[in-house]
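Researcher: Here's a chain I'd like modeled. Treat it as a single chain, no partners, no ligands.
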Amino acid sequence: MTDQPPFGNDPPPQGGGYPPPPPYGSYPPPPGCSPPAGHRPRASSVFVTLPGIGTVAVATIWQRVLARLIDSLIYGIFYAIFLVIGAAVVSSSAVTDFHGHTTVEHSGLEMPGLLLALAGTLGSGLVYEWLMLAYKGATLGKMALGIKVVNQFTGQLLSLGSAFVRPLVPLAASVFCSLLVLLVYLSPLFDKSGRLRGWHDKAADDVVIKVRRAHWADRR
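Model: Modeled as a single isolated chain. Structure tokens:
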């Protein structure tokens, strides 16, 4: 009977030893998900390949939330402007009775003035997002965070129609319930494709990507 070497002591293959494993990060990425040259991807990054742009990273949910908070400050300015206009609608007058007592009588337009402020804020916010997305691909908040909204099929800016539909979805949700608006903005977390496309993104056929912050200064 031939003696067998103990288990685990098999001789190495001809040529001397086992080949060393490839260095970390040298495995080729799957097709369609490779990062651009010179980019060191993070473990949480998701990449998409778009016509005319190439391979770019998808914006994170935190970038989108922070951009929304910055835009909320702009909406606050709109609200303050229309609140002043609404207050101007409310008139009051001082009335002195026979006994010399003076009272202030309002015109009864307090509620219409408040509704005017709310309607003006919602309307101006809708126009602001619509035109900024259609002509720049981003609101001021998105520019500050270095993210951009583009068509998921062409990589180009959204059409006027798609740019209008995108902010219209959360606006329509606000008519029913403020919690529903929150769900719209958090809906990218429910996207099983990994592209973080929310319900408003799917309605407009868009995807939100990362760009260089200098990108906005480069545009003429």
